[in-house]
Design goal:
The complex is a heterodimer of chains A (370) and B (629).
Chain A: E1 2-8, E2 25-30, H1 38-47, E3 52-57, E4 61-63, E5 66-68, E6 72-78, E7 83-90, H2 97-108, E8 113-120, H3 127-134, E9 140-145, E10 157-159, E11 167-174, E12 178-184, E13 188-200, E14 203-207, E15 210-211, H4 212-220, E16 236-239, E17 247-249, E18 251-255, E19 260-263, E20 272-277, H5 280-294, E21 303-310, H6 311-317, H7 321-332, E22 336-343, E23 345-349, E24 356-359, E25 363-369
Parallel strand pairs in A: 2-3, 8-9, 21-22
Antiparallel strand pairs in A: 1-6, 2-6, 3-10, 4-5, 4-22, 7-11, 8-11, 9-23, 12-25, 13-14, 13-20, 14-15, 14-19, 16-17, 16-20, 18-19, 21-25, 23-24
Helix pairs in contact in A: 2-3, 5-7
Chain B: H1 3-13, H2 21-79, E1 83-87, E2 93-96, H3 98-104, H4 108-111, H5 116-119, H6 122-138, E3 142-149, E4 155-166, E5 172-181, H7 183-197, H8 207-224, E6 228-236, H9 238-245, H10 247-263, E7 270-275, E8 278-283, H11 289-304, E9 307-309, E10 312-314, E11 317-325, H12 332-348, E12 354-356, H13 359-378, E13 384-393, E14 398-410, E15 414-416, H14 418-428, H15 430-448, E16 458-462, H16 465-468, H17 474-485, E17 493-498, H18 499-502, H19 507-518, E18 522-528, H20 536-540, E19 545-548, H21 550-554, H22 560-575, E20 579-582, H23 588-597, E21 601-602, H24 613-622
Helix pairs in contact in B: 9-10, 13-14, 14-15, 15-17
The chains are: A alpha+beta (370), B alpha/beta (629).
Chain lengths: 370, 629
């Protein structure tokens, strides 16, 4: 397998990539208005006429171990033995995401299907439902929800067509390819274990019978005025019972009237929850852990490493964000190409390899090699 | 720019340092990171403070909750009447409830921290410690029963439940003991056991206990290759004491008799009361042959001595049956049967003596059983017949009545005596069925002889006390209905009963007698003079006839006493308005004497033996061949 990365910046249009005209797969991630234009897709199609071209808008795109903002990053892959196939669905309001996702999986199913990558609209799609629909076929799935900087306005997905909103793209990897993934958070739980006493979907109104927003404001102190942005510093971990592994949810929005919190994923009523606090070193270390989980068996193997990390991590890590890419690079070695994006939600297996879940605040690493 | 960064720049690069371009951008990045770090720190500190407050509040709530729980637990524990204590695994008391304080006679504060060995006597403490350790070793709840003494000296039986208690994570913390006062239950269990196994009146072992002991003794002597003797003692005439002096006195006599029998035996022997006036003695360790005899005789002698019962003096005697294990029998059942038979043999030999069991007794008993069996089939096999013996009106010299007498023609044994089979019929209850048949036969013949019999002709029918003791009067009513159906009046029947029935007559007997009288049936007292001959009941029960027993009539001519007695009975009866029938008249002399004494009716071989109905019919038709005048 061979890979090559090129980028588009407002100052410098596409350059290079001629050697990869026969690329099989091109992953595109962008935090640039250009990405949303038909020109962007057109230009890529001309460069890689045979490739399946897919990707999404981001809250920062990964180019090697650098985060590129305001750019478009394309990573071209040429497989020796592997094959790829794309399936796309558009989400209409009120659509059953779970069934839609299942339908996509069925389009891809084949005896030699090894792994599925998923890129989905990050604001119009319930990631938990999406994960539930993708599970159940005995196929490992990883990917993420498209981002929109820190704006939470509109997200885009490109899938062999100009990028558009409300779209879910799945890419099947077939044949003699190996895919491994790892998913780690590195946040630290603290304080008392509490109970979600009132929630509907991803909106939590009461924790321990107290207004949920009140609790967050107390913890944020002076930074309460900066909600919901400052809420990123206190993600919530929850689990349905003490026997289960906790899942992290990022705070997306607050409702002052209802005193409720909206999270980037469902938080079932009755779950046990704990606040989490930032510890930058721990966040960075966890990226290394994710990389080790996804590390190819042989060091020398040339691989593509798809990094999907949470926008929340980026906001919290600030200037240190790229350290987590450095760590991944250190663990995987120079022969591995890093590509990916900062997302509104990570989709990856956690403990059970075949059960993909929606995560927030994690670094998920998927390595693809032959 | 961050204050710290400004100061650092001034200190290290001089006050005039003025960055530009890229340097300014670089310094801004550093400054921004300084700020971010400060902000993070402030946030974290605030969060920690909030968290700490929350934990303090939660702690306070938990403490209050725990206090309430503790108070509740205390309240519950102290209101429970059971003793409750808890100890560390090493045996040190950790706490207890009020009930346990009362048991220990000291407050909890004096108990906590102590061991049983500090608080109780050495033996009790050691036993308690052992039970604790045993339970902890098995890690299973353990129940024991202990008799303990309270500080006030009262003895209490505690059912003590010991159970381990552990922390949530399974670490053994100690043991809990719960002691329940089961004294009442224990005592009542003991009482129930005593009531089930001992005779309340004499405190001797009862029938069940006796059997149990006999079985045990048999096992013991079998193993040792020894023998034992079983004595079956029955008090003679006890029933009469009960009947005349009342049950209360009878009970006193039994208690005294039990005492005397026990005094005649050794510690190792076992005396029991089977019921009524029956006692048994199991004699083991028989030294030589005469020992048993010696004891039996001693018992007989002691029981023959007068019983001083309140103001009364009573006399009884005893009949004792003796049998041996293993010579006579090897099981309880057979030994009892043997002793019983031997006792009856002693009674038959005239009471106040002992008798050994012999094979002949056994044979007799078997024979008796065979006879009972035959008796059951006799009615169906038409082996019974009613005979009639004429009763002469003395003054008129003609047949005026007859007594119906039952005869059993046994296919092998020939004629069986009533003395032999009536007791068996009574014992087995067959007497009811047989009695009914006799009555029907009599009624049938009465109807048949209507034209032949003289005016006022009556047939008397003997009735057993057993017939009177049947619940209800269904049989009696059948009799009366039967008479009715044949067009006979009650006047044609006389019921013969014995005195015994009237002594202590229960309401059922009285009711039946009244019913007979209402139907016009008369009542005769049979064998008068042989029993108590109490005069009171003659009037009370409206008796019509007295039948002088043949034992008096027999010696009428030779024994002046009997003559006086007969005359007195006749005079007395007449004074009371009763008629007299003399039985067993065999000689002309007797006939004359009775006639002179004013006797109303006579019956006996002088006139006719009991005869079959056909023959009696001839007598009715043609009169006696040798009429006596």
């Amino acid at each position: 397998m061979e890979t090559m990365q090129i980028s588009w910046t407002p100052d410098a249009a596409w350059s290079g990539g001629e050697a990869f005209r026969d690329a099989d797969l091109v992953l595109v991630f962008a935090d640039a208005a250009y990405f949303e234009t038909p020109d962007c897709y057109q230009a890529l199609k001309e460069k890689f006429p045979q490739a399946c071209i897919a990707g999404c808008s981001s809250s920062g795109s990964v180019l090697g171990s650098v985060i590129s903002d305001g750019d478009v990053v394309a990573t071209a892959m040429r497989f020796e033995r592997g094959k790829v196939r794309l399936a796309v669905a558009d989400v209409t309001p009120g659509a059953n995401i779970r069934m839609l996702a299942a339908g996509l999986m069925e389009q891809l199913l084949s005896d030699d299907l090894r792994h599925v990558l998923v890129f989905s609209d990050g604001l119009m799609v319930n990631g938990s439902e999406l994960a539930a629909g993708l599970n159940g076929y005995g196929i490992s799935v990883s990917g993420g929800l498209a981002g929109d900087g820190a704006r939470f306005g509109k997200t885009w997905v490109m899938a062999d067509a100009p990028a558009r909103s409300g779209c879910i793209a799945v890419i099947g990897l077939y044949g003699d390819v190996v895919v491994k993934s790892g998913c780690f958070a590195g946040w630290q739980e603290f304080g008392a274990e509490r109970t979600i006493t009132k929630s509907i979907g991803n909106v939590v109104s009461e924790i321990d019978n107290q207004p949920a927003l009140e609790l967050y404001k107390k913890y944020l102190g002076e930074m309460a005025s900066e909600l919901p942005g400052s809420g990123l510093r206190f993600p919530l971990s929850f689990r349905k019972s003490r026997d289960e592994q906790a899942i992290i949810r990022t705070l997306l929005a607050v409702d002052e009237d209802a005193q409720s919190l909206t999270f980037a994923g469902d938080v079932p009523q009755g779950s046990l929850c704990k606040l989490m606090r930032t510890n930058l070193d721990s966040l960075i270390e966890s990226a290394g852990s994710a990389a080790m989980e996804a590390k190819p068996q042989h060091n020398a193997t040339a691989a593509l490493c798809l990094v999907v990390s949470c926008v929340g991590r980026r906001l919290v890590l600030g200037q240190r964000t790229e350290e987590e890419l450095d760590v991944v690079r250190e663990k995987l070695g120079a022969q591995t190409t890093l590509a990916g994006f900062y997302s509104y939600g990570e989709l990856a297996p956690f403990s059970d390899v075949l059960q993909c879940s929606l995560h927030n605040q994690t670094m998920t690493v998927t390595t693809i090699y032959e | 720019m961050h204050r710290l960064l400004i100061r650092q720049l001034q200190r290290h690069l001089g006050k005039d340092f003025a960055p530009d371009g890229k340097w300014q951008e670089f310094l801004d990045a550093i400054s921004s990171y300084y700020r971010e770090t400060d902000q993070d720190k402030a946030l974290l500190e605030n969060a920690l403070a909030v968290n700490s407050d929350e934990l303090t509040t939660a702690n306070e709530q938990l403490r209050k909750h725990a206090e309430q729980e503790h108070a509740l637990l205390r309240g519950v524990m102290n209101s429970i009447p059971d003793l409750i204590f808890f100890k560390a695994p090493e045996g040190v008391y950790l706490g207890c409830n009020r009930a346990f304080e009362r048991y220990m006679g000291m407050p909890e504060s004096a108990i906590i921290g102590k061991m049983d060995s500090d608080l109780l006597d050495a033996a009790t403490a050691a036993s308690s410690r052992n039970l604790d350790q045993e339970m902890l070793a098995q890690a299973q709840p353990h129940v024991s029963e202990e008799w303990v003494t309270y500080p006030d000296g009262s003895k209490v039986c505690l059912e003590m439940l010991r159970t381990p208690y552990s922390s949530m994570d399974g670490k053994l913390l100690g043991l809990i003991g719960i002691g329940r006062d089961i004294t009442d239950r224990k005592l009542s269990e003991e009482l129930i056991w005593r009531q089930a196994n001992f005779d309340l009146l004499t405190s001797l072992p009862n029938r069940y206990m006796f059997r149990d002991r006999l079985e045990q003794e048999i096992r013991k002597v079998r193993r040792a290759g020894l023998a034992l003797a079983l004595l079956f003692i029955d008090l003679d005439h006890f029933k009469e004491i009960n009947d005349t002096l009342g049950h209360h006195i009878g009970d006193e006599l039994l208690v005294e008799a039990a005492r005397r029998i026990s005094a005649c035996t050794r510690e190792s022997d076992s005396v029991a009361r089977l019921g009524g006036d029956e006692f048994t003695v199991i004699l083991t360790h028989l030294p030589e042959g005469e020992h048993v005899e010696w004891i039996a005789q001693k018992i007989i002698t002691r029981l023959a001595e007068p019983f001083l019962l309140g103001d009364e003096v009573a006399y009884v005697s005893a009949s004792i049956g003796i049998t041996f294990y293993p010579t006579d029998a090897t099981n309880v059942e057979q030994l009892l049967k043997n002793a019983d038979q031997a006792m009856y043999a002693a009674k038959n030999m005239g009471r106040n003596r002992y008798s050994y069991f012999t094979p002949a007794l056994q044979e007799a008993a078997k024979d008796r059983l065979r006879l009972i069996n035959d008796l059951r089939g006799a009615l169906a096999a038409k082996q019974f017949q009613v005979y009639f013996q004429p009763i002469m009106e003395l003054a008129a010299g003609r047949i005026h009545k007859a007594e119906a007498l039952l005869r059993w023609q046994h296919p092998q044994r020939g004629m069986v005596s009533t003395a032999e089979f009536i007791p068996l019929a009574e014992e087995t209850g067959l007497i009811i069925e047989i009695g009914n048949w006799v009555f029907q036969e009599v009624a049938r013949w009465l109807a048949h002889w209507k034209g032949l019999s003289p005016e006022g002709f009556q047939v008397s029918v003997n009735m057993s006390p057993i017939q009177f003791k049947v619940e209800g009067n269904i049989h009696q009513q059948l009799w009366l209905d039967y008479l009715d159906s044949l067009g006979l009046s009650g006047n044609s029947i006389v019921i013969e009963i014995t005195e015994g029935l009237l002594l202590n007559a229960d309401p059922q007997v009285v009711e039946k007698l009244l019913k007979f009288r209402d139907a016009g049936i008369q009542v005769a007292i049979d064998d008068f003079g042989t029993g108590y001959s109490s005069l009171a009941y003659l009037k009370k029960f409206d008796i019509d006839y007295l039948k002088i027993d043949q034992s008096f009539v027999r010696n009428l001519a030779s024994d002046p006493d009997d003559k006086v007695l007969c005359e007195a009975i006749i005079v007395m009866a007449h004074k009371l308005g009763l008629k007299v029938i003399a039985e067993g008249v065999e000689t002309e002399e007797q006939h004359n004497l009775l006639s002179a004494a004013g006797c109303d009716y006579v019956q006996g071989y002088l006139f006719s033996r009991p005869v079959p109905p056909q023959e009696f019919e001839a007598l009715l038709e043609h009169g006696l061949k040798n009429p006596v005048r």
